[in-house]
Amino acid sequence: MNFDLTEEHRMIRDMTRDFASEVIAPRSEEMERTGEYPYDIISRMAELGMMGIPFPEVYGGSGGDWVGMHLCIEEISRCDITLGVLLDVTTCVVGQELFVFGTEEQKRKWLVPIARGEKIGAFGLTEPDAGSDAASLKTKAVLEGNEWILNGTKQFITNIGLENASVLLAAARTGKKEKGKSIISTFIVPKDAPGFHLGKKYDKVAWRASATHEVILEDCRIPKENLLGDPKRGFAQHLAVLETGRISIAAISVGLAQACLDNALAYAKERTQFGQPIFNSQAIQFKLADMAVSIELARNEYLKAAWLKDQGRKHTFEATVAKLYASEMVEKVASDAVQVHGGYGCMNEYPVSRYYKGAKPLQIVEGTSEVQRIIIGRILGNRL
Ligand SMILES: Cc1cc2nc3c(=O)[nH]c(=O)nc-3n(C[C@H](O)[C@H](O)[C@H](O)COP(=O)(O)OP(=O)(O)OC[C@H]3O[C@@H](n4cnc5c(N)ncnc54)[C@H](O)[C@@H]3O)c2cc1C
User: DSSP class of residue 347?
Assistant: First the structure.
């Protein structure tokens, strides 16, 4: 067993760390306050090849792997979580679904610009009445001549509000199986398709510079060839890429938790009470030690899941454990970081107040903690 990062992995991590601390960190507070999208930063991330790390060069990628991609996501998220989420959705979920299930033509048309970062992808599963029970989605697609006509509403859609968002990968019902269950297919829905309406922008508690909108598909017409993958396995395709999304949420959580620890440690050494730095108090050191322990464990687990994926091995259990543990861990770490800061931690000018708010949605996106426990429970059941 070898826990060392390769030379290439170290280069990706160090390059991303330098870029994120020089370019992203100074803008992070402003982005959260104004909710404005940092197009210039996104362009620079694209120039550095961050949007296509795991894809071959022929499809606009950098020819790297999933460990490298997730090291990049961790380092970006250490400085700004919304940009980590952007990468998760456009690269790990949408880019991957196009790469794995797309035809050669679909890859050239839709994946290449996404992998190069010229365009941004969005993922459309959740609907007003279909969240954790995603298979109960109501959006319908009907084939009419050479076009699919889609009708339905998708909600909480990350990235779709960005000016350069090109496409929504939307799941829709296309028929019924013999036993009455719906057949769900996945479609490449261009944002400029007739009948595609960008709905309201959500006013979120955190991640305010993440462009999350509702999408209304009203007699939305797309070419017949925009069906993605197996028409009977669209739901399974969506779930398969969400497995990688879970590794990404774990990496984002670790990045955010590391930022909490960095800030809390620096503050504890600087803040003096009772005539000495609060770091000298064992109560504070224990909090910091617990943070470091849980971050280390979460990092090891997301890297293991990404490594298994790179080996082409099954990683459902590891990806789910990583997502569940890391997203619950970061809420506690962020809360403790605020505690170490005392009253200052409740002031918006201190980054830990922002980190605290940003931690919670990680337990909800890409499957809630309850859903992760359901998946793990099922795996345990199958082991009997
Ligand atoms: C910021 C943000 C960005 C998002 N981006 C996207 C996106 O880009 N694309 C997309 O498709 N979706 C996106 N989502 C949606 C997200 O995936 C869903 O919010 C999530 O899957 C939960 O669905 P829900 O909100 O409908 O909650 P519900 O499913 O209504 O769940 C409510 C509560 O009940 C619990 N629950 C439900 N069923 C069970 C059960 N059987 N057993 C135990 N507990 C249960 C849940 O765990 C949760 O605690 C985003 C959400 C947020 C907050």
Answer: S
Question: Given the DSSP bridges, would you call strands 120-124 and 165-176 parallel, antiparallel or unpaired?
Answer: parallel
318-342 tens-digit pLDDT: 999 999 999 999 999 999 999 999 9
Average pLDDT over residues 158-166: 96
Q: Is the pLDDT of residue 265 over 80?
A: yes
Atom 48 of ligand 1: nearest residue by CA position: 368
Nearest Cα neighbor of 172 from 141, 194, 193 is: 141
Is 187's C-beta closer than 6 angstroms to any atom of ligand 1?
Answer: no
Percent of the chain at pLDDT exceeding 70: 100
User: Going by C-beta distance under 8 Å and a sequence separation of 6 or more, which residues neighbour residue 144?
Assistant: none
Phi/psi region, residue 151 (left: phi>0; alpha: psi -120 to 50; beta: rest), is beta
How many of the other CB atoms lie within 10 Å of CB of 319?
A: 29
pLDDT digits (tens, 9 = 90+) for 67-92: 999 999 999 999 999 999 999 999 99
Structure-token pair, residue 33: 């306050």
Q: Confidence class of residue 177 from pLDDT cuts 50, 70 and 90?
A: confident
Q: Is the CB of 311 under 6 A from ligand 1?
A: no
**Bridge partners of residue 184, in order along the sequence:** 173
What is the biggest distance separating any 2 CA atoms in the chain, rounded to whole angstroms?
80
**Are the C-beta atoms of residues 320 and 309 closer than 8 Å to each other?**
no
Atom 38, ligand 1: residue with shortest CA distance: 132
pLDDT for the residue 180: 82
In short, whether 361's Cβ falls inside 6 Å of ligand 1 is: yes
Reply yes or no on whether 366 is catalytic. yes
What burial letters (b/e) apply to 218-233, b meaning 16+ CB within 10 Å? eebbbeeebbbbebeb
Mean local confidence (pLDDT), 297-325: 98
Using CA atoms, how far apart are residues 98 and 86, in angstroms rounded to an integer?
A: 17
- C-alpha 131 to ligand 1 mean position (Å): 5
Q: In angstroms, what is the span from residue 376 Cα to ligand 1's centroid? A: 17
Give the mean model confidence (pLDDT) for residues 286-293. Answer: 98
Question: Which of 126, 167, 376 to mutate to test ligand 1, by most ligand atoms within 8 A of the CB atom?
Answer: 126
* Shortest-distance atom of ligand 1 to CA 374: 42
For ligand 1, atom 31: residue with the closest CA: 132
Using DSSP, state whether 5 is helix, strand or coil: coil
- With a 6 A CB cut-off, is 132 part of the ligand 1 pocket? yes
